Structure formats: C-alpha cells, structure tokens
Amino acid sequence: MEDSDIPQLKPKEPVSDSVLIPKIGSQPQSVKKLPRKTPKWLLIAGGILIVLAIYLIFSFLNIYQKAKALSLEVTNLSTEAKNQNLPGVKSQLTKVDGALIKFRSSLTLIGWMKIVPYFGGFVSDTQHAANAGTHLIDATEVFLLAIEPYADIIGFAGEGAEEAGDGAKTTQERLDFLVKSIPELIPRADEISQKVSSAQKELEGIDPDKYPEKLGDKEIRAKLKEGLAIFDEVAYFAINGKPLLEASPYLLGIDSPRNYLVLFQNDKELRPTGGFMTAYSIMKVTKGKFEPVSSNDIYNLDSTYRPTIDAPEAFIKYLKGPYVASHKMRLRDMNWSPDFAESMKVFAGEAESVGIKNIDGIIAVDTQLLVYLLDVLGPIGVSGYGNFSNEIIAECNCPQVIHELESFADIEGPVVWSENEPGKIVYAPPNYDNRKKIIGPLMNSILSNAFGQPKDKLPALFEAAFKSLREKHVLFFLIDAEKQAVVESFEIAGRISDYDGDYLHINDANLGGRKSNLYVTQEVSQEILVAKDGSVEKTLTITYKNPAPYDGWLNSVLPNYVRVYVPKGSELTSSEGLEEKFDPYEEFGKSVFAGYFQLRPQGVAKVTFRYKLPFKVKGGYLLLIQKQPGTGSPLYTVSIDKTEEEFYLTTDRLLKLR
C-alpha cells in the first residue's frame, strides 16, 4: 500500500515537531488567598480594653456627679456659717457627711488605679483628702457640741444661745459666762485635737507642685496650696489650743488677780521685737475683767533708771544720743534681741529697780492692733483728746489714729525751766505733757467700747484679736515658766524657733530714722540652687523702698541695722548693698549675717547675701521663714528647680518646696 492510500489526519492548527512543555510561571496564575485568623489573645485584649474604657467612663462620671453634689453641700454649709445660724450649720453638716460618704464610696471603683504610674498619685491624693474630710466632719461635730451653750457669745443664733443671756447683753457679760465655762470645754478640746491630727496625717503627703497650674481657665495648683495652708493654720490651733485653754483661768485671773505690764511698741520706728518701746501701762485682770491701773511715758521710767548693762556696739556707733556720753543701755532700748522672751527677761529684771514689781507678765502691742480694733468699733472718742478713727488722712496718707499717736509721741526739742520759779516750765515742745497721758485714756476708751459691743460685733472682735496674735502685733512674756511654755507652744511669745532644715529670719532695726517705717516697704527674693550631690547655694535679695518725700517729722533718712538668721554653719560667700559689713556670728543656734545701710526718702536700697547651707538636701526641701514682729506683710518670692512661689508673709510660714 502506498503512502498515498493511507488516510492523512491534519490538525486544524499546525503543530510543531517538538513536544510542547508549558513553562511554569510564564503566565500569572490567579490563586485564592485564605483569610488570616486574628490571634485570640488580641481579641481578648481588645475586648478587655473596651470594657475597661466603658468601666472607667462610667466610674469617673459617677465620681464627678458625687463630687459635684458634695461641693454643693459644702457651699450651703459655708452659707449657713456666714449667716451664723447654728441649727442650720448642724443640719447642713449632716448633709455634707452624707454626700462625703457617697463620694468616698464612688472612689472605691478606681481604688485599684493607685498602682498605675503617675495617675495613681492623683487617685491616692483624692482618697486621702476624702478621709481627711471625714475626720474634719467628726471634729466639727464635737466643736459644735462644745460651743452650743455659748453660741450667743460668738455671735451665733441657735438653740443654746439663750443660756448665755439675751441679745442685749454686752461683750463683757458674755465673756464672763464663757470664762466660767472653760473647765467644761477642756475635755472637748482633746477630742477635737485628735480628730484634726488624723486629718493632718491624711493630707501631709499631698504635693501641690505635681498638679497643673491650670485646668482650662481654672486655677488648680495655687488653689490647692492656699487650701492646704489654711488647713495647716486651723490644724495648728486645734492641736495646740488645749494647753492655752487650760492656762486660761490663770491668765484671766480666775483664781487670783493678775497684773500685766503692757508695753506699747511703735512699729513705725521699727525695733527687733516690733517697735520702739514708747510707753507702758499696768493692767489688772480679775475674773476676766480688764482694768488699766496706770500708764506713763517710757522716758519718765528711764529718767529714774541707773544703767548697768553694756550697750550694743550698734547703739554707740549709729544711734548715738545718750550713748555718746555713756555706753550703758537704756530701758527703752532693751528690746534689742530679736527673741522677745530674751529681751523681756533683761527688761523685766532691770525695770524692778525703778519700781515695776510684782507683775505676772509682759504684753507688747503695736499700732496695728489699734487699727484692727477700730476697723470693728468705728471712730471712738477719748475725753480731752478728741476722736480717733481709721480714716486715711492726707497729712500722712495713713489712718488718722496713727497720725495722732505719732503727734503725741513727738517731743523733739528742749524743755526750758524757769530760773526764777523752780519747777515751772517756760517752754516745752508740743505734747510734752500729753504724751504720757494719752495711753491710759485711749486704752480705757478702746476697752470700754470693745466690751460694750452688741453680739453682732463679737465675731469681728474675735477675728481682730486673733489676727493680731497671728501676725505678731501682740506678744506675751510670762514670769511663770510653766505658763510661758504654754504661750510659746501657741506661738504668741515671739521666740526664735529651733529648726533642723533651711531657715530664714530677717530682723531690721531703725536706729534714729524717726517714724520712716510708716512708709518703708520690703520685698524679699530667695533663689535656691540645689546641686546633684544635694549641696545648696542661696541668693537672698532684700529690697527696701521709701516712696514718700522727706518731711522733717515722720519721714527721714532711715539708718537700718539688718540681721539675717540662717542655719548654723552657713557659709557667707558674698554680700552687696551694705554700707558697713560685720563678721558672721552665731546666736540662738543660727548663723547671723549683719550689716548697716541708709535708706533715703523716695529711695530704694537693695541688699544681697549669697551663702551656702551647711547640709545637703535629699528628697523634700523644707524652709521655715519667721516674720519679724511689728512688720506688715512683706512680699516674698522663693524660686527652686525652675518653680517659683510668691506670697505675703503675714506670720511664720513653713514651705514645702519639693
């Protein structure tokens, strides 16, 4: 068979002679991807976070609502207190207690957050503050029970007011009732002290500096600092008030009459304990009743005194006057020590030689006490001397009472005696005779006005007295050592305090600058540099300003002797602004930097001390600043670690800077 006879199969498409093997990957292949599974742990974690977020949102909303309700009740309580409504205060306090219980309960929802870094501190602070609030409510309840029988005495209307008498009774009658009731108050003071102490322990760990300065437009840090400072003030008196209450029967002459020497310190002529001792009075206190016995001018007392104590070098060099002829100290200058008790020990001992005997203590007051009292009493009349008020007058741009007292105190010029008629004065400077007479009548008028006030003036009178004590315009020195310890514990004795940490006390003395302290202001700046090893370098700058012109009477050149008390062992590295410098020395367990300069009317003087502290600081930084008695409210600025704190120093202050 021929090939042509064989059937031929022809493909439609020509086929290559070679076998075609497809190339792998020559054409993209579409592959279906299986969905990747989310790890189970991630799903669980996400779920937990969502649940936690919801939990926290509802928890914080609940806390916010409870805090808002608590704030409202506290505001209502404050309103009742301002209205002096004792039943209203008691009722509202119960509501505050209920709101606080609910607020504390809401905090348990986030209690576990205390372990969370940073945020845990705020949670812990809130719980401590709530706990402190509970203790304070307990203390307030005890306090209200204690004062209820005497509500009328302190100006509160209430169920117990009738026990103290009707509303027409005078301040003196109410005080008589209170004095008789002191033994019943002492046990309550113990309870209050314990509860306030517990609150203080809860709050002492709160650091305001870790809080933001502002939240939106609301002040946070400053308000917190202010609140803690106010609490510290209240706590101090609540905790230390019992010993003073126990000593009150002695001080007020309940068991037997007390005789006090009252010294009038002119703070417009500033001296170490508050002012030049211009006059004095003997006051008798019997069963809470105050009776001025006699008053006189300090110069008259000095005229019968034979000096025996060596005068400080500063008197001889700068004050001159009688110290040119004799280098022995006069009675009127014996408040040279910044420690009031030390000055009064010397004064009382020497005053005995001129007839000041059988006194139970010394009370020093300055002109600011009169200003505070007249703020409450209004203008008062003094027979033979006219009216006294707090009205600001153009003659000195100061209260009228200050101007009048300075006028009576001014006896510059000689006294000329008659040659022909022994004992007759031919010429005397203005107020020569009146100066020694004004103190007694003025004191009588103030006391009679104060003790004759109706009940609505009582809270303001108590506030004026309390403010004068806290700001060191009234100081006590008692002969009885046990009673002296009581007034020292209450910090109304003008002592230089012992303190282990950083310390500052600035003490100025006007040595012949007339009454220029009426116009002089003081600003104090402290820059604190803490090195990595804890060593501390400080720059202290004191700026004195006298904006008023020279008048030849009140305002003159101020010869100022300044002493700066710092921790013992501090090393002075430099000082500027002093006309004369003195070697550092030690006193009262402190190192003292001293110097002298003059401040002219309408002038400015700036004094700077740079020094190193004798110890290293680890952790927190505490600074105790003690105010000089008789001064106003100097502005202080303290800077450390790029933070700055500014305040007016109205009383001794302990700063927690870190």
From TrEMBL:
Spans traversing the lipid bilayer: 41-64
The protein, known as: DUF4012 domain-containing protein
InterPro entries: DUF4012
Keyword Transmembrane helix: yes
Keywords, in A-Z order: Membrane, Transmembrane, Transmembrane helix
Pfam families tied to this protein: DUF4012 (PF13196)
Superkingdom of the source species: Bacteria
Taxonomic lineage of the native organism: Bacteria, Candidatus Woeseibacteriota
